[in-house]
């Protein structure tokens, strides 16, 4: 569920979490916990962190976010991502398109699976602390790279912080709800349930921004709803609490995407360069999330649990959660690298197809009980996601 920042069509997978992706039209969007899922949610900016991505997924979902499921947006968003990628000192190696795509898929899938392992495998009951720690890892790495001159970031001025704070509050809520839902829901079901965020985002775009979507887009969104409902009905490990958290996460993911679009121009005007690249958003989202995360850790009484749990005395546990933070941020870097080496179309479709091996891995690695009906519902939802990506790209392509 922390890349937490980077944007986009979040990505999903993306995520959101996502490590956090900054959505333009969220497709699911891992900024971190999702940063992974959350990060794969919009093909424009990645809000990571996480991630759910950046899948939530930064996260991204994310940044994946994610945020989780980098799927789409318009040509302007894609150009801004490519411009951000070009500002990085990308390694000059052979077959960069294949390697960048592979790195993106591995980092986005691993982010969500590692978060699931921490929350369910280890039974770690402090999801807000996990998000907070992942954000600290992101801030540390990005700040170090920025100070060394390896990557460009905008100075965090007070004017920029004031403009971004409302978005960041939603972002933190997105990551936290992604963490809680991931604890109770298996990865495969979480992947298709996140599709509901696409429906809310598309509806919000039509209502608030008067954006018209093609018939195929609405058909794909309808198929996503059907698959989510069918999947929930046939889910052998159904957990009401997890579904409540995920429903809230979908609303927050959509709100993040729509709010981000509203404040982006103001945020750019508040910077010294007049631009705000993905890594600057990663740093901004994660830095601002630290005080709020500390308040929530104290308010939700996670401190008492942290003082008592033996997990924090295990070096391997610290290694795993540190890796989750690095993976969340990795979604941001690999997504920019991949987009720079390929096209927005390839990037979006790979983000959608990436959910298929992620779902299979989630079922196999965590011994998820399933049925033929539930498996078909999940497959139906995954294919609907691919259909949605293709329809949205066709919708946004010049005629």
Automatic annotation (TrEMBL):
Pfam families: TPT
PANTHER family per record: SOLUTE CARRIER FAMILY 35
This protein's name: Sugar phosphate transporter domain-containing protein
Bilayer-spanning residue ranges: 97-118, 130-151, 163-185, 217-234, 240-258, 279-298, 318-339, 346-366, 372-389
Primary residence: membrane
Domain Sugar phosphate transporter as annotated: residue spans: 101-387
Topology in membrane: Multi-pass membrane protein
A GO-annotated cellular component: membrane
Keywords, alphabetical: Membrane, Transmembrane, Transmembrane helix
Keyword Nucleus: no
Compartment(s) where it occurs, according to its Swiss-Prot or TrEMBL record: Membrane
Region (Disordered): 1-33
């Amino acid at each position: 569920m922390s890349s937490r920042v980077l944007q986009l069509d979040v990505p999903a997978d993306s995520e959101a979490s996502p490590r956090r992706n900054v959505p333009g039209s969220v497709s699911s969007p891992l900024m971190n916990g999702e940063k992974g899922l959350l990060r794969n949610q919009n093909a424009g900016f990645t809000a990571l962190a996480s991630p759910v991505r950046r899948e939530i997924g930064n996260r991204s979902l994310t940044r994946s976010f994610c945020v989780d499921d980098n799927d789409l947006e318009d040509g302007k968003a894609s150009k801004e991502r490519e411009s951000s990628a070009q500002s990085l000192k990308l390694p000059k190696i052979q077959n960069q398109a294949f390697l960048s795509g592979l790195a993106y898929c591995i980092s986005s899938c691993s982010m969500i699976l590692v978060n699931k392992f921490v929350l369910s495998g280890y039974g770690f009951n402090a999801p807000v602390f996990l998000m907070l720690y992942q954000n600290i890892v992101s801030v540390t790495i990005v700040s170090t790279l920025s100070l060394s001159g390896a990557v460009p970031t905008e100075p965090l001025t007070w004017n920029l912080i004031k403009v971004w704070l409302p978005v960041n509050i939603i972002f933190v809520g997105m990551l936290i709800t992604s963490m809680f839902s991931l604890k109770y829901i298996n990865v495969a079901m979480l992947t298709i349930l996140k599709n509901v965020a696409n429906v809310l985002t598309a509806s919000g775009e039509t209502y608030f921004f008067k954006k018209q979507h093609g018939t195929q887009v609405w058909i794909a969104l309808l198929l996503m709803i059907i698959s989510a409902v069918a999947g929930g009905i046939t889910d052998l490990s159904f957990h009401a609490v997890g579904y409540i958290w995920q429903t809230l996460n979908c609303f927050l993911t959509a709100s993040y995407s729509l709010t981000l679009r509203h404040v982006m121009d103001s945020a750019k005007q508040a910077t010294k360069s007049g631009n705000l690249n993905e890594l600057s958003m990663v740093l901004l989202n994660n830095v601002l999330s630290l005080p709020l995360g500390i308040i929530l850790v104290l308010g939700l009484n996670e401190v008492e649990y942290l003082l008592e749990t033996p997990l924090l005395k295990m070096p391997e546990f610290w290694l795993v959660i540190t890796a989750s933070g690095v993976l969340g941020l990795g979604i941001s870097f690999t997504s920019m690298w991949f987009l720079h080496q390929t096209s927005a179309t390839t990037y979006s479709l790979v983000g959608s197809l990436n959910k298929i091996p992620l779902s299979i891995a989630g079922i196999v690695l965590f011994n998820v009980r399933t049925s033929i009906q539930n498996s078909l519902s999940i497959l139906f939802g995954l294919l609907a996601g691919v259909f949605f990506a293709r329809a949205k790209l066709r919708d946004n392509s010049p005629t």
